[in-house]
């Protein structure tokens, strides 16, 4: 099966940081601190810092699963594929509601800050803004990564200035107002440690944006590095700004006033920015707040609407939710989500919205941490995260326990409401989706250790994801192709003779006993070691005796004759022209799967059999298998820029230091050169290296055609 319409991996580390950070800076900083201080008093700034620390286990779990399952749908997709469609339904609905509630709270912030300048009802402004965002989403308007980066830089500059100026103002006047400032922090815990824990759970919603990285994992370059590092940087920066910024609000706003203030950042700014014209600081903070709320509101509606869309596509919700409009947007899902957000704005208090959003999110965090344990215990080889959570499983257990404790401290009303959503999800799955969904989650593979059945569909899907992810940095696929042994048969060849020769080659090259390890490559169980494609047969095996991966390629101009003992049990797609053998060490099962996936991706190209059987050059065949942006082929011809290399030893050429001449074809024979190899006229060089250097070589040399 060919894979099309894959999303481009063009998001780097700063993109990850900007998307995560931008999604967190809105209501958490500009609206929530005053409401949150009602539960714990001046110690509310500690609640923000503790919440940032306590979210670490879940952040590590999200980072691991995101590098293993880079798919749209985020937490819903994780839970569905790990715990099964029942928990996927519950998790999808829980995340959906959490996102809608956070979005509703952010949009209310637009009304709260608009009221600073105009006498307008907060909730009416919020409803109008919601309809505006709905229209933007329906016509397909979306926030680009470039805009997000500019927005985050602007926001960080303003907030950093606010913090620096605020601390300067406080310490500059401390000798005069020392007693006044001290009184702002007394009593430090207005409701004891219990109040602090309640506040930690309450402000957890401020870090919800951290989970949005899961939805864009498919588009991130070098995800093993950029996802965890980007999330950690975002969490550190956001946590510090939350803690320091809220500390300043407490220092300058009277406690009873702060507890009811819907725009505490703007109120604090009235006592800072004295070096600017009057009210300029308030205006600046308000503009930043409105931009943050608008960005979060629009992106929140977009993200939330994708949950019913994804669940409709997976048959967990009615198919109508997966309908796409003329502009390419899920119209029904967007409109339905808009209606629910408006209902939350009208029916719930700001405090109620935050408590429900935090409770739902904490419940999802419990499930996500448990999912990592399930995936690891399932022993599915194609579960191949590029980043592994540290301190497994203690980190995940800690994440589960922390989330559970914080849910308890949030009170019975949000717990009962969340329980109602869970029950609703169970009933909905039982009566609507149960007969329509056939897949099961990774947890069934864990149960398989106890004698239950596994779900082959999940393994196939994970293999599909593995193929789309491609090779990992350091996987020696190119080196294996370069060193592969190629046999081209122009006369008919018998299957058993072919296999005997391959076995002999492997036995000699790998120093293996024919009746020992390599014997397994030929006498195998077909469903474990053989893949049949039209005209192609792929043998793959992992052997303890092998240290490094090895490949042999057999190409027959005529159809390969004869049968194998397993022909009756396995569907070989004849006529058969190509056999590829890939052997790797038993110590690297996941590397073998990635290399096998890359090989299959190549062998599933259109007209691959016709292309390969028409090639007589080993170099051409290997270059066809390499075919990527990390190599270039150059022919040394007189009258071209590369003619300067003719007569030089390879070590004396002026090639970039990060490239390697892997192959030379000379007089229709291909060999691997060394530093003392003298380059001759009409030599064809296959050069591997870093993308930038290869691109430079291509632009320098490839304006001249190569004559075969």
Automatic annotation (TrEMBL):
Outline the extent of the RCK C-terminal domain.
Answer: 619-703
Q: Which InterPro entries match?
A: AA-permease/SLC12A_dom (IPR004841), Amino_acid_permease_CS (IPR004840), APC_superfamily (IPR050367), PTrfase/Anion_transptr (IPR016152), PTS_EIIA_type-2_dom (IPR002178), RCK_C (IPR006037), RCK_C_sf (IPR036721)
Tell me where in or outside the cell this protein is found. Membrane
Q: Name one GO molecular function term.
A: monoatomic cation transmembrane transporter activity
- Keywords assigned by UniProt, alphabetized: Membrane, Transmembrane, Transmembrane helix, Transport
The name under which this protein is listed is L-asparagine transporter
Bilayer topology: Multi-pass membrane protein
Record field: transmembrane: 12-32, 44-69, 90-118, 124-141, 150-172, 192-210, 231-253, 282-307, 328-347, 353-375, 387-409, 415-431
User: A single Pfam family, by name?
Assistant: AA_permease
Sorted alphabetically, the Gene Ontology BP terms of this entry are: amino acid transport; potassium ion transport
Q: Which residues form the PTS EIIA type-2 domain?
A: 479-628
């Amino acid at each position: 099966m060919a894979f099309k319409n894959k999303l481009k991996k063009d998001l780097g580390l700063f993109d990850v940081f900007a998307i995560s950070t931008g999604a967190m800076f809105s209501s958490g900083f500009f609206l929530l601190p005053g409401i949150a201080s009602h539960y714990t008093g001046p110690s509310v700034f500690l609640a923000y810092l503790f919440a940032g620390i306590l979210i670490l286990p879940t952040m590590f779990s999200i980072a691991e699963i995101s590098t293993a399952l880079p798919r749209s749908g985020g937490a819903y997709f994780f839970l569905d594929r790990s715990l099964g469609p029942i928990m996927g339904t519950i998790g999808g609905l829980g995340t959906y509601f959490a996102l809608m509630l956070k979005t509703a709270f952010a949009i209310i912030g637009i009304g709260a800050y608009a009221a600073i300048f105009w006498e307008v009802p907060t909730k009416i402004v919020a409803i109008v803004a919601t309809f505006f965002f709905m229209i933007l989403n329906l016509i397909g308007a979306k926030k680009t990564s470039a805009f997000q980066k500019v927005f985050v830089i602007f926001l960080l500059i303003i907030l950093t200035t606010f913090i620096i100026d605020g601390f300067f103002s406080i310490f500059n006047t401390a000798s005069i107002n020392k007693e006044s400032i001290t009184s702002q922090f007394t009593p430090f815990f207005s409701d004891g440690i219990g109040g602090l824990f309640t506040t930690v759970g309450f402000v957890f919603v401020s870090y919800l944006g951290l989970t949005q990285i899961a939805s864009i994992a498919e588009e991130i370059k070098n995800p093993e590095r950029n996802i965890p590092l980007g999330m950690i940087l975002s969490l550190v920066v956001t946590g510090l700004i939350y803690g320091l910024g809220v500390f300043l609000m407490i220092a300058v706003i009277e406690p009873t006033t702060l507890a009811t203030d819907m725009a505490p950042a703007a109120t604090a700014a009235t006592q800072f920015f004295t070096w600017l014209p009057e009210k300029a600081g308030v205006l600046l903070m308000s503009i930043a707040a409105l931009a943050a709320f608008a960005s979060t509101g629009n992106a929140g509606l977009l993200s939330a609407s994708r949950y019913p869309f994804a669940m409709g596509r997976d048959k967990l919700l009615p198919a109508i939710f997966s309908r796409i409009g003329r502009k390419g947007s899920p119209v029904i899902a967007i409109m339905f989500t808009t209606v629910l957000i408006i209902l939350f704005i009208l029916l719930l208090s700001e405090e109620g919205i935050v408590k429900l959003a935090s409770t739902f999110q904490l419940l999802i965090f419990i499930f996500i941490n448990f999912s990592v344990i399930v995936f690891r215990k399932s022993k599915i080889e194609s579960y191949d995260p590029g980043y592994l959570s540290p301190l497994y499983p203690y980190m995940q257990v800690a994440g589960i326990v922390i989330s559970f404790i914080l849910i308890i401290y949030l009170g019975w009303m949000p717990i009962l409401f969340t329980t109602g959503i869970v029950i609703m999800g169970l009933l909905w799955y039982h009566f609507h989706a149960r007969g329509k969904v056939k897949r099961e989650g990774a947890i069934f593979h864990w149960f398989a250790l106890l004698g239950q059945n596994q779900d082959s569909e999940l393994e196939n899907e994970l293999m599909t994801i593995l193929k789309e992810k491609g090779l990992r940095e350091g996987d020696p696929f190119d080196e294996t192709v370069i060193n592969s042994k190629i046999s081209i048969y122009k006369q008919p060849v018998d299957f058993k003779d072919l296999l005997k020769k391959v076995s002999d080659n492997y036995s000699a090259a790998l120093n293996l006993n024919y009746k020992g390890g390599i014997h397994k490559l030929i006498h195998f169980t077909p469903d474990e070691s053989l893949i049949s494609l039209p005209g192609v047969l792929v043998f793959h095996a992992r052997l303890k005796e092998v240290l490094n991966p090895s490949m042999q390629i057999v190409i027959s101009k005529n159809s390969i004759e004869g049968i194998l003992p397993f022909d009756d049990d396995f569907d070989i797609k004849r006529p058969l022209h190509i056999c590829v053998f890939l052997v790797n060490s038993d110590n690297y099962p996941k590397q073998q799967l990635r290399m096998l996936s890359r090989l299959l991706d190549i062998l599933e190209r259109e007209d691959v059999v016709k292309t390969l059987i028409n090639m007589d050059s080993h170099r051409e065949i290997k270059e066809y298998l390499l075919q990527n942006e990390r190599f270039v082929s150059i022919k040394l011809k007189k009258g071209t820029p590369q003619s300067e290399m003719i007569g030089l030893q390879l070590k004396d050429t002026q090639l970039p230091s990060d490239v390697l001449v892997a192959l030379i074809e000379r007089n229709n024979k291909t060999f691997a050169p060394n530093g003392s190899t003298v380059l001759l006229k009409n030599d064809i060089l296959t050069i591997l290296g870093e993308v930038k250097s290869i691109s430079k070589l291509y632009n320098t040399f490839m304006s001249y055609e190569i004559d075969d």
